[in-house]
Design goal:
This protein has helices spanning 13-21, 35-38, 55-62, 77-86, 121-131, 169-181, and strands spanning 2-6, 27-32, 45-49, 67-70, 92-97, 137-142, 144-146, 154-157, 166-168, 189-194. With 198 residues, it is an alpha/beta fold. The chain has a single domain, classed as Rossmann fold, CATH 3.40.50.720. An eight-stranded mixed β-sheet has the order 3-2-1-4-5-6-10-8, with helices on both faces. α4 (77-86) packs parallel to α5. The radius of gyration is 16 Å and the shape is globular.
Length: 198
């Protein structure tokens, strides 16, 4: 299976890449502004230092990918999301954060909701672009990620109140791998994966 990771050198991307490399069946294309400096090309890795806002260069790397996992943040998310949509990738997992739909209860992380946190605006704008497209996508909303070995989590879908604003890395990894192994899982859905803090 061919998997591209956009944001491969981020806080999530680095450990997730290591996990995917432990699974022999996966061929990885690693994309970030510094991926070519951190990873070396091999029989299983293609690493490119690339700004994902560059659609022309991104196109050549996303062709023939079975799954594209995007884990980026910042003001350019809308541009990157539109590039991915226009390149019509086969299967997309777009990682963003909980609160983009104002789904956090006021007394349980409500300060991170879009209505209270302007830094959520680029996250929501990117997700709107993806949800309005014809792509086979999953929006995977995490909370603040902590690096513990606990993979217990609660999954809620768009329109449901989220149960917390903290996620363990292991829980996100677990759900992401489930989707990679079963691409029909959570197809064209937006899910939050968080620790139950209710």
């Amino acid at each position: 299976m061919n998997i591209a990771i956009i944001g491969a050198t981020g806080n999530f991307g680095i450990p997730f890449t290591a996990k995917l490399l432990s699974i022999p069946d996966y061929q990885l294309t690693l994309i970030s502004k510094s991926a070519g400096n951190i990873y070396e090309d091999s029989h299983r890795i293609t690493a490119r230092s690339l700004d994902a806002t560059n659609r022309k260069e991104l196109k050549s790397l996303l062709e023939n990918q079975d799954i594209v996992y995007c884990a980026v943040s910042g003001e350019d998310q809308s541009v990157i999301a539109r590039n991915i949509v226009e390149l019509n990738v086969k299967r997309l997992i777009y990682m963003t954060v909980v609160g983009i739909y104002n789904e956090l209860p006021k007394d349980n992380g409500g300060e991170y909701n879009l209505e209270n946190e302007k830094e959520q605006i680029p996250n929501r704008n990117a997700v709107d672009i993806i949800e309005e497209s014809d792509l086979d996508y999953t929006i995977l909303r995490s909370g603040y990620i902590i690096y513990e070995n606990d993979d217990e989590c609660v999954i809620t879908k768009k329109g449901q109140e989220a149960r917390g604003y903290v996620s363990t890395y292991k829980s996100i990894e677990k759900i992401a791998l489930e989707i990679i192994e079963n691409p029909e899982l959570y197809s064209r859905e937006s899910i939050s994966v968080t620790r139950d803090m209710s």
